Amino acid sequence: MSPSASQTPPRQDQPSAQIPPAPYPQHAPPRQPPIQRAMILAAGLGTRFKPWTDQHPKALAQVGGKPLLQRNIEYLQQYGIRQVVVNVHHFADQIIEALADNKGWGSEYIISDETDEVLETGGGLKKAHSFLEAAPFVLMNVDILTDMDLSAMIQDHFRYQPLATLAVTGRSTSRYFLFDEKDLLCGWQNVQTGQVRTARPADAPRQKAFSGIHVIDPGIFPLIRRTGKFSMVDLYLDLAADHTIRGFDHSMSKLIDVGKPEAVAKAEALFP
After folding, report:
1. Domain containing residue 256
2. Is 8 a member of any domain?
3. What is the model's pLDDT at position 259?
4. SS3 89
5. What is the torsional sign of CA 99, 109, 130, 41?
6. What percent of the chain has pLDDT over 70?
7. In the structure, how many helices (H) and strands (E) does the chain have?
8. Which of 50, 76, 129, 170 has the greatest number of C-beta atoms within 10 Å?
9. Three-state DSSP class for 255?
10. What does the pLDDT look like over 148-204, one tens digit per residue?
11. Whole-angstrom Cα distance, residue 86 to residue 59?
C-alpha cells in the first residue's frame, strides 16, 4: 500500500524494501557491478528552489517530465546500481509516496527518515550508516544531473583505494575543494569571502569545483566523530590530514546543479 500524505513516514529501521547485505567487490560473481548500493541525498529544504519548495520537495521537481529523484535513480541504474537509500525531511511524505507509487522506478529502496531534524549531508550519511557499512558505495546529491562515466570514477576509486573519491571539475564557482599535485584533498576555499580552510599543507594547491558525487569506502564510518547536523565538507576536512581523499576530474562531462528554478530550462536542454 502506498503511504498517504497523512501517514507518518517509516522510520529508518523500517525499510520500504528489504535489501540484502552487499558483498565486497572481490566476492562478487563475474559481470556483477563492483558497487551495488548508493545513497541519494534528498532531505534538503530547497530554499533556493522556491516557490516550488513551498509545497513540494526539490527531489520531485520536474526536468523534462521526470522528477530529479527519478532521473538520478535511473542514472545509477546505468551502472548496475539498483539499491538506493533515500533520506527525507522536507515534504517527506511526498517522496515516500512517489517512490512507492512508482516502485522505486525499478530500484530497491530504503527510506532514511530525517523528519525530526534535517541533518545536512554528513549527518544524513551517518544516520544511514547501517545500510551502507558493508561495502563501498556511491553518495550523490539529488539535484545534480550529469552524464559523467560513473564506472570510470568507480574504477579510479578501486585503483587508488582512498577513503573517498570526489567528482570534481575545473568550472568556476564560489567555493572550491583544494587538491595537491597528486589529486589529494588538502583544503577548501570560499573565493567570495576569502575564507580558506587547510587540512594539510601543499605547494600551490589547485581549485576544483565539487560535483556532488562521491565514492566512499565504509571505513569512513568509524572515523566520524561529529554528531547531529554537519556537512560532508566538514567531515572531509577533518579526515584529509590523516586519510587519503582523492579528486576525480570529469571536466569533459555534462553537469548541471538544478538548484534554482531558472536552471530547469538549462537542464532540459542538456538532458532532453
Report:
1. 34-270
2. no
3. 87
4. coil
5. negative
6. 88
7. 6, 14
8. 76
9. strand
10. 999 999 999 999 999 999 999 999 999 999 999 999 999 999 999 999 999 999 999
11. 10
The number of distinct structural domains making up the chain is 1
- Please list, in sequence order, all residues whose beta carbon lies within 8 angstroms of the beta carbon of residue 56, skipping any fewer than 6 positions away: 91, 94
Position 29 in a domain: no
- Convert 254-271 to b/e letters by CB count within 10 Å (16 or more is b): ebbbbbeeebbeebbebb
Whether 269 contacts 190, CB under 8 Å: no
Structural domain includes residue 148: yes
Give residue 26's pLDDT.
Answer: 54
DSSP 3-46: PPTTSPPPPTTS-SS--PPPPPGGGSPTT--S--EEEEE-----
> What distance in Å separates the CA atoms of residue 17 and residue 103, rounded to the nearest whole number?
10
- Whole-number Å distance between alpha carbons of 96 and 86: 9
Say whether 180 sits in a helix, a strand or coil.
coil
Q: What does DSSP say about strands 66-67 and 62-63: parallel, antiparallel, or unpaired? A: antiparallel
Residues of the chain with pLDDT below 70 are: 1-32
CATH number at residue 58: 3.90.550.10
Give the model's pLDDT for residue 51: 87
Domain contains 3? no
Strands 37-41, 137-141: pairing kind:
parallel
Cell of 161: 583505494
The pLDDT, as a whole number, for residue 140 is: 98
CB 85 within 8 A of CB 39: yes
Phi, psi values for residue 140, rounded to 5°: -150, 150
Distance between CA atoms of residues 132 and 130, nearest Å: 6
Beta bridge partners, 139, equal: 39, 214
What is the number of alpha carbons within 13 Å of residue 162 lying toward its C-beta?
Answer: 26
Alpha-carbon span 22 to 185, nearest angstrom = 28
Contacts of 67 (CB under 8 A, 6+ apart): 59, 60, 61, 98
